[in-house]
């Protein structure tokens, strides 16, 4: 009888796919906007790329929250949780840095594409239905806006007055028309007591396939707000 071989090393388990990680060019701009901040939260943490900010901000305590266990487990410092119910006390953070879902075609909830190739959607990349409170299944519309109004109120609760809020967001084209998702988020945050301090538009590589590919908005916004007053 042959003896079974003991492994010389552990093989890494393949990382779960994720359709919408921060691109590196955005991180540099975010780090510039967050200089001097001590406690930074990403309530829509995804793969935990926000922790890369420690490269430029080595003294900052960074936290991230992600609702899907597979994605939360990618980075050991990510907390499995819900952006609508953050497990920190009022005013704990002096900065938020985040990229919510954009309300675009990535929200399509079909699990299996007809070709068998996984689409660049949250549901297809995760490989199962999303958590019921995952905004990754919300197309642009009232439910999307209501969800983010609640999420930004909860983020404001956890932020100190004078705190920074760095938002990465993008418009998209639907039925040949531009959907002004960015303006909506700016209006929502301003109504909650934030003021825009800086708005950078950064060119990012666009997907070269899918519906409307010829008419994609060619940049993403990175916007720095400051919380002037907690209403
Ligand atoms: C645009 S992605 C962020 C990706 C992240 N910036 C990265 O680099 O990996 C938005 C993330 O928010 C998560 N999410 C959606 N709804 C959530 C909720 N209610 N609470 C926490 N996370 C949520 C999604 O699962 C998704 O991973």
Protein described:
With 231 residues, the protein is an alpha/beta fold. The protein has one domain: Vaccinia Virus protein VP39 (Rossmann fold, 3-Layer(aba) Sandwich), CATH 3.40.50. The protein contains 5 helices and 9 strands. The strands form 2 sheets. The protein has a 7-stranded mixed β-sheet, sandwiched between helices. The chain has a two-stranded antiparallel sheet with strand order 6-7. α4 crosses α5. It is globular and about 50 Å long. The termini are far apart. The structure holds S-adenosylmethionine. The site of S-adenosylmethionine (SAM) has 22 residues, from β2.
- Uncertain residue segments: none
Q: Largest beta sheet: what is the strand line-up? A: 3-2-1-4-5-9-8
Distance N to C terminus: 75 Å
Beta-strand residue fraction: 15-25%
Largest sheet: 7 strands, mixed
Global geometry: globular
From the alpha carbons, calculate the radius of gyration and give it in angstroms. 19 Å
* Total DSSP E strands: 9
Question: DSSP helix count?
Answer: 5
Mean pLDDT: 90
Number of domains: 1
Please trace the helix and strand order, writing H or E for each element: HEEHEEHHEEEHEE
The CATH class name reads Alpha Beta
Q: Provide the helix percentage.
A: 10-25%
What would CATH call the homologous superfamily? Vaccinia Virus protein VP39
**CATH structural architecture:** 3-Layer(aba) Sandwich
CATH topology: Rossmann fold
Q: What small molecules accompany the polymer chains?
A: S-adenosylmethionine
């Amino acid at each position: 009888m042959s003896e079974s071989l003991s492994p010389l090393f552990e093989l890494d388990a393949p990382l779960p796919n994720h359709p919408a990680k921060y691109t590196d060019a955005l991180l540099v701009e975010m780090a510039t906007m967050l200089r001097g901040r001590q406690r930074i939260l990403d309530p829509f943490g995804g793969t935990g790329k926000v922790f890369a900010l420690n490269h430029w901000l080595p003294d900052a305590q960074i936290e991230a929250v992600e609702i899907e266990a597979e994605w939360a487990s990618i980075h050991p410092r990510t907390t499995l949780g819900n952006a609508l119910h953050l497990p920190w006390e009022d005013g704990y953070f002096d900065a938020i840095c985040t990229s919510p879902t954009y309300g675009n075609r990535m929200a399509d909830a079909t699990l299996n594409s007809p070709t068998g190739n996984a689409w660049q959607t949250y549901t297809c990349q995760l490989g199962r239905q999303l958590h019921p409170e995952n905004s990754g299944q919300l197309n642009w519309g009232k439910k999307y806006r209501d969800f983010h109004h609640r999420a930004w109120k909860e983020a404001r609760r956890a932020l100190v007055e004078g705190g920074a809020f760095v938002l990465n967001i993008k418009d998209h084209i639907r039925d040949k028309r531009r959907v002004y998702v960015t303006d909506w988020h700016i209006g929502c945050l301003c109504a909650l007591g934030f003021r825009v301090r800086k708005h950078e538009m950064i060119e990012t590589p666009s997907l070269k396939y899918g519906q409307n590919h010829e008419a994609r908005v060619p940049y993403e916004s990175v916007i720095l707000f400051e919380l002037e007053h907690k209403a």
